[in-house]
Amino acid sequence: QVRLVESGGGLVQAGGSLRLSCAASERTFLDNTMAWFRQAPGKEREFVAAINWSSSRTAYADSAKGRFTIFGDNAKNTVYLQMYSLKPEDTAVYYCAAGPGLSVSPGEYHSWGQGTPVTVSS
Which residues on adjacent β-strands are paired with residue 21? Predict the structure, then answer.
């Protein structure tokens, strides 16, 4: 269905900032929610943040709360993840996902991007 393309990852020092972007080819009622997950080597994929296009409701993991902000540009069908005060433990490949509703479960999302790597040095 929808195609997702992430960008904005890179190498940053601890305490620095990055803004990730996720561009969607289009949006239907089946793609009403977009989310960010991350996966580090040897670890399971974990939820970071999500936003629902219709309600503008957002959800954050405890690790992201207060440091990360998810927001969208309706005209561009693009969702952003603004990350401040980055820590070495934030190092991972970050994936964009699309699904019908807000969820912290990867299985609830039907479309995924290829991922963009984020490395935070200490």
Answer: 7, 80
